[in-house]
């Protein structure tokens, strides 16, 4: 008999060492997430995947599954909180979806649709952020970075490079590039790198590939993020 | 610069874990960390430049652009404000012709605010080139301005500027202890290691840093790990505003602190210990190094301690201005030469701490208590206090009272008693345990100190009825927004949103729904943040909203909605560009 915990009343089997997120995904249950990606070390920073474990809030992407845990995820209250956390990410940066190339393929947007987010709720920060268009093939629009560190982890763990890092403290966090000038053009990045394609938002984009798929025919224009997520991430969780 | 960096890196045995100490040395010499130094360090330590830049931008005392040769930081603790910090800052800023947050054009002076420097009993306080300076007033500022004009080296300034008093007013078990170096350790070996751990267990001692985990249990967990390489860490980050008792323990009871650490090492089997000393306590560094050296000379540290088969030594690591490094896993990250970002748990430090090895982290006072329990036995300690909170607690008392300083009490003492002892009158409320703790009003003075009622890391700030509660809450809320490490969304964005929402209300721009919105935000930040910082950052608002709801409501405008954004003012640039100022070029904020 394999071990199980319950997720919203449903038994979920797991193996020792699995996180709640891994076990849930393997069992075909979606838990909203942004900084989590099955191929990279969990980070636990966006807090979108927060679930209630035996009465305490824990991040599903980092918290280990244990026998008999009582986990709540799809409650009205938790999803309302997730919506607010998503709204926090929207007001912190500058996200003008209609003019963004990623619109329709963006996970931040996809999660916002999924959580039925209809406005930004909080006051905007109007943070002054820059662009880095120095590289011939890859560009960064810092306005859309949500500090998920997926590019940092992908560069280290998939590309065996170290192109990105997050610097600064608190609300002054920002993405930095490992190069003499601090610009992308002088870094080791290559358009074929995993790090250049992993960004869940429109912060890292590949040049000259924009709008090849028209808006309205993109991933989250037709499917909910839970369905897409389970289809693409189920495999890698095994 | 090349040879300076190379020597520096050699002194630190080329270990990237020493990055913070290395960067502190570069900062002290060049008043910032020059680009060239970053490149050289990256090469010498074989770490990416981004990791070095990340660390520089994380810690308040490290800078990418030059600070003045005299870098002045003024403590922003609420107690400094109550002692007239605001006026003094203006005076200082005028006197030196430099505005807070900037560097004077000639590069000689820079001025800024800094979080509480742990001198609340002798403020207004600050730091000059990292050295603590106390009891600032106008005459002292005049003298400082002159010394700077004369470009006199800070080392040659009058000693009394840097005097830091202990101000001990009330002693109990620990502060009256006469334990001499080696006594606790001898008792430990004489009684037996297992037996000594039982004594600590029977003493009922719980951690004095705030969380109150049972000390004996923590040590036992660590000792039971299969990994043999283990570490002892003393948490002397003491960053909670209003706390300064660890400063006094390190100044006058350092032997007992190190004795406690060494006993812990004996019990858990550790060979290396660290004292993580907050950067603000730089003035204690050499004194503590000397105590360590004496202990080595006396055979209390090093190889074959007291002739036994035990090797252990202690290294002092200085922080660089980051409250979050008091959180134990962030502290460990910082010890490893990284940004102080709290780790995901589990695993806990007792199983995977420093370099992922089993590590005990305890507060300074906890180690002093264990040294004394090792000597006198568990019953001696447990005889004081209450059933749920054994022993005594050392408080740092500041704010509106006649005798701010250090007081030790058995747990169970009433707040009323403490206020009488320190000479507090006309009390409005007391902040217990610092901004992250509990605010109580003058209706609750019969509550008691203890884990069962008012738990505290030691901060005790008294406010009298002349104080404005909203000013206090604003100061605390700003503190958390400034100190959030920024790792998780609810704390990074949430603490700044709390600040914005509170400012909106206090500045009189709030309307009907704004207090409810503030409450909702406090709940989000508290429930979803990654670590204790975020989980307690909303406490000042939550506690005062509970006690003084009318105070918040009375700030609100009577209209149903008031935007946080001034529409008409933001059109100013457009008006200037269009060279217009007629009625049509102005917009009403809300329809009348
Ligand atoms: C934001 C934050 C700051 C903290 N600061 C300190 C501190 O300055 N000193 C301290 O001893 N503990 C501090 N703690 C508590 C530590 O994480 C840890 O619980 C403590 O050092 C354990 O020692 P103890 O069991 O002896 O109390 C802090 C915790 C948090 C969340
Ligand atoms: S990154 Fe996503 S959320 Fe942000 S602007 Fe682009 S589409 Fe919108
Ligand atoms: S650039 Fe994209 S992948 Fe990298 S941290 Fe920002 S949001 Fe995440
Ligand atoms: S997905 Fe778990 S914290 Fe981001
Ligand atoms: S714990 Fe550091 S920002 Fe949340």
Automatic annotation (TrEMBL), chain A:
GO molecular function: 2 iron, 2 sulfur cluster binding; 4 iron, 4 sulfur cluster binding; metal ion binding; NADH dehydrogenase (ubiquinone) activity; oxidoreductase activity
Cofactor(s) needed for function: [2Fe-2S] cluster; [4Fe-4S] cluster
Alphabetic keyword roster: 2Fe-2S, 4Fe-4S, Iron, Iron-sulfur, Membrane, Metal-binding, NAD, Translocase
SMART domains registered for this protein in UniProt: NADH-G_4Fe-4S_3
Domain 2Fe-2S ferredoxin-type: 1-79
Location(s) in or outside the cell: Membrane
One Pfam family it belongs to: Fer2_4
Main location: membrane
Domain 4Fe-4S His(Cys)3-ligated-type: 77-116
InterPro entries found in the cross-reference section: 2Fe-2S_ferredoxin-like_sf, 2Fe-2S_ferredoxin-type, NAD-red_Hydgase_HoxS_gsu, NADH_UbQ_OxRdtase_75kDa_su_CS, NADH_UbQ_OxRdtase_Gsu_4Fe4S-bd
Any single Gene Ontology cellular-component annotation: membrane
Gene Ontology annotations of biological process type: ATP synthesis coupled electron transport
Subunit annotation: Composed of 13 different subunits. Subunits NuoCD, E, F, and G constitute the peripheral sector of the complex.
Membership in a protein family: Belongs to the complex I 75 kDa subunit family.
Protein name per the record: NADH-quinone oxidoreductase subunit G
Species of the source: Methylotuvimicrobium buryatense
TrEMBL record, chain B:
Transmembrane segments: none
This protein's record includes keyword Nucleotide-binding: no
A molecular function (GO) term: 4 iron, 4 sulfur cluster binding
Signal peptide: none
Cofactor: [4Fe-4S] cluster; FMN
PANTHER family tied to this protein: NADH-QUINONE OXIDOREDUCTASE SUBUNIT F
Protein name, as recorded: NADH-quinone oxidoreductase subunit F
